[in-house]
Amino acid sequence: MNYRKALITFFTFLGGIYFFLEFVLPEKLPEALGGYVFGMFHSEISNGFIAIGAVAFALGLINLFYVHGSKIIFKRKGALNSIALLVSLLLMAYLTLNEWISSEQVNTRSADLRNLAAFSERIKGDAEKSDYEGLSVTERVVFLNDALKIELSKVQAVLDNRESAMPNFLYEDLTTNLAVVTDKAEKINKVINNGSVFTDFTILTDLSTALNILAPSFYKINETSYRTSTEKLTYDFVYEGFFVPLGSAMFSLLGFYIISAGYRAFRIRSTESALMMIAAVIVMLGQIPFYIYIWNGLPEVRLWLLEYPSAAAFRAVKFGAAIAGLYMAVRMWFSIESSSFIEEGKEGPQ
Amino acid sequence: MTNQTLILWTTIMGGVCTLSIFSFLIKENPFYRVFEHIFIGIAAGLGAIQGFRYFLWPQILVPLFGLNIVQYPDGSFSGEYNPYVLLYIAPLLFGLLYYFIYSKKHGWLAKLVIGFSLGASAGLSFKGFFAEMLPQLSSSFKSLVVMANGTIDWASSLSNMLFVFTLLAVMYYFFFSIKAESATAKKFSASGRWLMMVCFGSFFGSTVMARLALLVERLQFLLIDWASAIKTLFSFGPPA
Amino acid sequence: MKSRSKLRSLLNLDRRVIFLFVLLALAWPLLNKYTIRPARMKSADKLFKIVDELKPEKGKVAFVAFDFGPNTKAENASQAQVVVEHLMRKRIPIILFSQYVLADPFLKSIPEKIKLSLESEFPEEKWEYGKDWVNLGYRPGSALIIQSIPKSTNLAETFIIDAFSTPLKELPIFKEKLTLKNITLLFQVTGLVGTFDSYVQFFQTKDYRPQFSHGCTSITIPEAYIYLDSGQLNGLLEGIAGAAWYSYRLSDEYKAREEDDAVLINTGLGIAHLLLIGLIILGNISGLISKRIERVAT
Questions:
Q1: What number is the ipTM of this complex?
Q2: DSSP code of B58?
Q3: Residue ranges per domain, chain C?
Q4: I want to staple A12 with a disulfide (CB 3.0 to 4.6 A). Which of B119, C189, C198, C230 is the partner?
Q5: Taking CB atoms and an 8 Å limit, are B206 and C73 in contact across chains?
Q6: pLDDT for residue C265 is more than 90
Q7: Which residues of C touch B212 (CB under 8 A)?
Q8: CATH number assigned to the domain covering C42-260
Q9: Is the CB of C273 less than 8 angstroms away from the CB of B208?
């Protein structure tokens, strides 16, 4: 099926062409070519590239469910471990999702106040436009006033149901900021109740500023309350109580094995191994606090070793690796290296 | 449940998990296996949601569905829907081709998107190579005679000479396409090998610190934090 | 015969005996909280000087990347903590970020912990989220997201929201239009392979590159030195030893500062190193003696 090979080759090339051109072309093309700024949509294009990979987030999950699910269903060896894995996966996914939703809700509560602030500014901005066609300022302010009453009552409800565990200064901040907003709201209410046309735009600006100050203090209270919520505490318990210690412990096992291997296997049998050993001992002794009991110059020798012979040798290795990497990248980009990848073979899960 | 109680139980469970992993040091056992699988499960569950939460949702799906546009109380909107956001549908659909890897008949479609991703990383590597390597190359040209206060600074000069010699010797050692024929060339290549051993020795010395630091931190947790939590639980000592 | 068999059993010592020996040797300094002044790290001194010379200026921020997880938290979390603490003491606004999903909780917990510690040290002062630091959270994309930052004309529009879904434009740090040129210092802490390279390669424009400092796990210390030599790195924290020395410098500068665990872990580490060197020497001597005995016997 030659068309498949051609398609894969084409898409492989297409994947790299933007970043290659972005590197070789000037930032702004000459006027004769349109004066186009090549990186104008760089952020959006980068997001597109990331999105391609991000959508595949379920690949690993499907594989895990396939492998461990089949162990459970067919009662193979290790089925209990597979149950533990899938249960913890589902539990953590649920807890993380729950934690996300809860934190979004916290944000939404203060976002409503910010939106009212933006609406207040919008009313003023639209009134200053000559081409605005819509509801009159007074009608819009009536809507603003009604929405304000609802949002401020929500804030008041939080103040009325104080949690004893919460710091007092948060409530004090909220009370002060709420009072400022309420004062502005009352002024607006007065104008509306009088039935007069709304003309005082400074109140709208002041209201917007006050709402933008109230929103973060309302957020802080909700956020502090959320931190002691069941969702957050359960998430923290699983993460701090299981995940962090398990991850740290897994990697710390290597410490034991390094010491054991150092005793049982590290033998100086040649000039090269002796050189390696001397360098290793100097580096180790130079980086620990007990060097002062051996020789004060050890950190300096260690530094010299790392800055000169070690850095030079590693740089040489890095040059070779980088050139080889670039070479392989070019071969990959032009699909020269990809014959086994492109050719027909066994497909699907193994 | 109070905060203190939660911290106590978190610490206790942390110790149980640590000891379960450390039980492998005695021998392979089911206790270790279960907790190992729990670790993988938690990591997978966490990773799956966070990728969606921090990128796909706010950067792609929210603007795509217009959820970033707020409707004000009077029915007007905070902004207009940007139709160019619909272009994101293309990479989303293209990325979904990854899932064809599970199909025997249509598995080749997954190769389109894998090839595309490989091509993108290849395209990025050009810029990355020059940005990373050119400063490395230019800083390799060190002064072989360093002057200080009108006289030769022998320490720096000799160090620089050693640096350049090491760089060239190790690079020469790796040029497999050029065979070392003469005795001088062979000695040059051998010195490259020896100097590389110095580099590997420093890597070993550094690796030791990395691994031991993880071990010491875990032991510190077990011997101080966990022991204190156990004492509190069984009321053998002052509260944690 | 007897000495040969004793030597053989010494050479083939069960690894579990060695593990127990390690445990006992490390338990003593940890239980007694024995600490000793850490070894001086010149690369950490360089970073300390860079941060110390930063001045809070309008529109200037530090960009700090936590690209590590629980597996390397022993070294990386200590490094992240000391540098973020120093930046917060200097009142340099910080933008926190990560390419690694498992770093998310550290992005939240570390600045909060430092804030509480600083506010207890300076009761009349406050450190606020949004003003002193912003947490952008985890951003997938690796090199793709890093290379989009220098091209951005407004970081608030590139990242849109913070880790708590708050629009960035509403946070005081982002009130000014921020681009790469507003970033005076980039500090990246990582134990992963490949993430450091993406900053070296892409976190710059043709005419501007922020000062770049790096906190690495000890494994990549020799690798980091080639970048220090070329000037691509301006400062380096070498594993836990670097963090311990930095912490020591901070305690020396700010006398009322609360001690952290870096120095304690570093001391325990020193004992572990001496143990390993001792065991290597013992193993080699035993091996040599065993060979001699075999040669004599044959």
A1: 0.88
A2: I
A3: 2-33+267-297, 42-260
A4: B119
A5: no
A6: no
A7: 269, 272-273, 276
A8: 3.40.50
A9: yes
